């Protein structure tokens, strides 16, 4: 079961429009972060990679060894603005990695096959 709920299409479009216009509030960034974490969780179920987007959320995704305690075998962490850009296809995974906007370690931590989410 998904930890986060996806936004209704109208809410998603409105929040994305505010992001694009540079008028997004913190609540928009939080809602979009959680929305795209929920979409990733639905499309790539599993427990082998933990995707962290502090302070708004984290999910475990991608098939493989199940993680239950301690540090997961693979961790991806980024800030909310980068996560939303990656999820929307406005930023490529390789560009985010080379610009050090994402940290990723462990097996299966390359999210290229799972992005974008729109």
Q: What is the total tally of β strands? A: 4
In the CATH scheme, what's the topology name? Answer: Nonspecific Lipid-transfer Protein, Chain A
Taken together, the total number of domains comes to 1
Write the element-wise H/E pattern from the N-terminal end onward.
Answer: HHEEEHHE
- Which CATH-level-2 architecture? 2-Layer Sandwich
What is shown here, in short?
By secondary structure, the protein is α+β, with helices and mostly antiparallel strands.
Polypeptide structure, described:
This protein is α+β, with helices and mostly antiparallel strands. The protein has helices at residues 9-20, 26-43, 80-88, 93-98; strands spanning 49-53, 57-61, 75-78, 102-105. It has one domain (9-109): Nonspecific Lipid-transfer Protein, Chain A (2-Layer Sandwich). The chain contains four helices and four strands; from the N terminus they run H-H-E-E-E-H-H-E. The chain has a four-stranded mixed sheet with strand order 2-1-3-4. Helix 1 (9-20) crosses helix 2 (26-43). The longest helix is centred in the first third of the chain and has 18 residues, at 26-43. The protein starts with 8 loop residues before the first helix and ends in a 13-residue tail after the last strand. The mean pLDDT is 93.
């Amino acid at each position: 079961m998904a930890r986060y709920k996806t936004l209704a299409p109208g809410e998603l479009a409105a929040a994305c429009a505010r992001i694009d216009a540079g008028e997004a509030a913190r609540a928009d960034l939080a809602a979009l972060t959680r929305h795209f974490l929920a979409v990733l969780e639905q499309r790539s179920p599993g427990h082998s990679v933990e995707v962290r987007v502090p302070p708004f959320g984290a999910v475990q995704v991608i098939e493989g060894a199940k993680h239950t305690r301690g540090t997961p075998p693979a961790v991806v962490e980024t800030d909310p603005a980068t996560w939303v850009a990656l999820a929307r296809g406005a930023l490529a995974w390789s560009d985010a990695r080379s610009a050090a906007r994402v940290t990723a370690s462990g097996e299966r931590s390359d999210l290229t096959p799972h992005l974008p989410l729109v």
